[in-house]
Amino acid sequence: QVQVVESGGGLVETGGSLRLSCVVSGMSFRPFRMGWYRQGAGKDRDSVALADKGGNRHYSDSVRGRFIIYRDEAKNTVDLQMNALKPEDTAVYYCYVQISAAGGDYWGQGTQVTVSS
Fold it and tell me: Where are the beta strands (DSSP E) in 1-117?
């Protein structure tokens, strides 16, 4: 059974840093894509940073230059280093796993990130 477990959320002041971690277990292969989405209060769930197998990285415009995604393909883990945090980064962050280019996905339970002004 596949499990996706996030850790590392919390409360931080504006300008601070946090690192989120996600571990995928029960998957015997390397998925096509791993990454992070977020959902603020009353907002849609949006992509933040995605890491494709083989090296491609995708960042939303709102976090490019501040967030860095790290993927360890051998361990099926993905981290999100978040720097220069802003209040608008406050959201529940979800780890996302896409099995293949054709689709099929798993989600973590979410971890809260709150940036105080």
Answer: 3-7, 10-13, 18-25, 33-39, 45-52, 57-59, 67-72, 77-82, 91-100, 103-107, 111-116
Q: What is the DSSP letter of 73?
A: T
Q: Looking at residue 96, what is its pLDDT? A: 98
Q: Given a cut of 90, is residue 103 above it in pLDDT? A: no
Please tell me the predicted confidence (pLDDT) of residue 89: 98
Residue in 70, 112, 71 with CA at minimum distance from that of residue 93:
112
How, if at all, do strands 91-100 and 57-59 pair? unpaired
The alpha carbon dihedral of 2, 46, 35, 80 has a sign of negative
